[in-house]
């Protein structure tokens, strides 16, 4: 048994065991509970619903690895989406061309980066707690968005944008391809770059990282800027998927991004975790949601189950850590 566990850890990593076990449990339980669960329709639905949640989770991942948090990701995504929507409206609305979309997307990414820049600067130079800083940014972005849109939606976009949210290439949904590209980019950044190494160092011990010569302020600013950019990518996907933008889109995703990170083995205090287990955890949560929908549960019950699951994950991780200490 020990040899098998060692072999598994060497191939997949020890942090992959939990997400894969959860995936197996979800597939088995809902496969027996509903004859329509293990079908192409279910997995196709998951493939289209997963991307915006997945990209937002990647936006949450890097701040958590530094020992922080970005509570403003969903409203950053919505403000970025509104920026793209306003650019399209100013250039003909439904008649806007690809140039306007490209300009609007660049401005949306810039808005996301600016949001992260402000948070990163405040956190890095004042040492204010990331929860308080990102909560303040969340409130600001929500209020700004409500003021500018008067609480309404913005819709009416060119038809060539629709494939970004609903199209397929060789049978693979376009938004899923975007998510996979973001997962690969995040994995490479965290595992192969100096910024990734510095991110883990800061999460493990920011004072030790500072004494070892790492410019911790610069790293924190870059981490939150990249978080904002990733949230902006999610905002662009949501605009294409819903064909409309409003400030409150995706509010419920905030809880799920944190849950996906913890289920994927990310240390809530920072310093440890990988992208790939988080990606598997995202699939588990989306399959769980689809399974509950097939059983007739409403979205409110699904949200409640996610909340309970977050508590269960934390308790299980505590028991696991205690068991490991006893064995040693």
Question: Which terms summarize this structure?
Answer:
single chain; 328 residues; mainly alpha; two-stranded antiparallel ribbon; 14 helices
Write structural notes for this entry.
The chain is mainly alpha-helical and 328 residues long. It is built from 14 helices and four strands. The protein has helices at 2-11, 17-33, 40-65, 73-90, 98-126, 130-149, 162-166, 174-192, 194-204, 206-211, 216-242, 253-263, 275-294, 299-327; strands at residues 154-155, 168-169, 172-173, 244-245. The strands form two sheets. The chain has a two-stranded antiparallel sheet. Strands 2-3 form a two-stranded antiparallel ribbon. Helix 4 runs parallel beside helix 6. It is globular and about 60 Å long. The model has no long low-confidence stretch (mean pLDDT 86).
Question: How is this fold's topology laid out?
Answer:
Elements: H1 2-11, H2 17-33, H3 40-65, H4 73-90, H5 98-126, H6 130-149, E1 154-155, H7 162-166, E2 168-169, E3 172-173, H8 174-192, H9 194-204, H10 206-211, H11 216-242, E4 244-245, H12 253-263, H13 275-294, H14 299-327
Antiparallel strand pairs: 1-4, 2-3
Helix pairs in contact: 2-13, 3-8, 3-11, 3-12, 3-13, 4-5, 4-6, 4-11, 5-6, 5-11, 8-9, 9-11, 12-13, 12-14, 13-14
Summarize the structure.
This protein starts with a helix and ends with a helix. A two-stranded antiparallel sheet has the order 1-4. The protein has a two-stranded antiparallel sheet with strand order 2-3.
What is the helix fraction of residues, given as a range?
over 70%
Instruction: Give the CA-CA distance, first to last residue.
Output: 17 Å
Structural class: mainly alpha
Give the strand line-up of the largest sheet: 1-4
Quickly count the helices.
Answer: 14
Proportion of strand residues: under 5%
Q: Would you list the SSEs in sequence order as H and E?
A: HHHHHHEHEEHHHHEHHH
Low-confidence stretches: none
Rg of Cα set: 20 Å
Number of strands: 4
Mean pLDDT, all residues: 86
Biggest sheet character = 2 strands, antiparallel
> Which outline best applies?
globular
């Amino acid at each position: 048994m020990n040899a098998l566990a060692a072999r598994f850890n060497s191939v997949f990593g020890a942090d992959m065991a939990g997400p894969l076990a959860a995936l197996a449990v979800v597939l088995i339980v809902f496969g027996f509970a509903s004859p329509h669960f293990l079908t192409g329709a279910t997995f196709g639905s998951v493939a289209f619903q997963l991307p915006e949640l997945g990209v937002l989770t990647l936006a949450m991942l890097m701040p958590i690895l530094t020992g922080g948090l970005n509570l403003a990701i969903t409203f950053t995504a919505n403000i970025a989406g509104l920026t793209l929507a306003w650019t399209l409206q100013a250039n003909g609305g439904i008649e806007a061309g690809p140039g306007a979309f490209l300009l609007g997307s660049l401005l949306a990414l810039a808005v996301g980066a600016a949001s992260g820049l402000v948070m990163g600067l405040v956190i890095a130079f004042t040492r204010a707690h990331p929860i308080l800083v990102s909560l303040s940014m969340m409130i600001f972005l929500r209020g700004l968005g409500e003021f500018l849109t008067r609480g309404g939606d913005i819709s009416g976009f060119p038809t060539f944008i629709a494939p970004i949210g609903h199209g397929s290439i060789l049978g693979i949904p376009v938004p899923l391809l975007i998510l996979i590209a973001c997962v690969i980019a995040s994995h490479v950044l965290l595992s192969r770059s100096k910024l990734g190494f510095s991110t883990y160092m800061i999460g493990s011990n920011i004072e030790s990282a500072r004494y070892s010569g790492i410019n911790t302020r610069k790293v924190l600013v870059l981490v939150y800027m990249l978080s904002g950019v990733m949230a902006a990518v999610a905002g662009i996907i949501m605009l294409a998927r819903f064909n409309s933008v409003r400030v409150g889109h995706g509010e419920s995703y905030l809880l799920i991004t944190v849950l996906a990170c913890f289920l994927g083995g990310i240390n809530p205090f920072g310093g440890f975790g990988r992208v790939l287990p988080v990606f598997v955890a995202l699939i588990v949560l989306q399959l769980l949601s689809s399974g509950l929908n097939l059983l007739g549960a409403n979205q409110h019950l699904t949200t409640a189950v996610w909340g309970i699951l977050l508590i269960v994950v934390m308790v299980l991780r505590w028991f696991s850590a205690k068991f490991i200490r006893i064995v040693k």
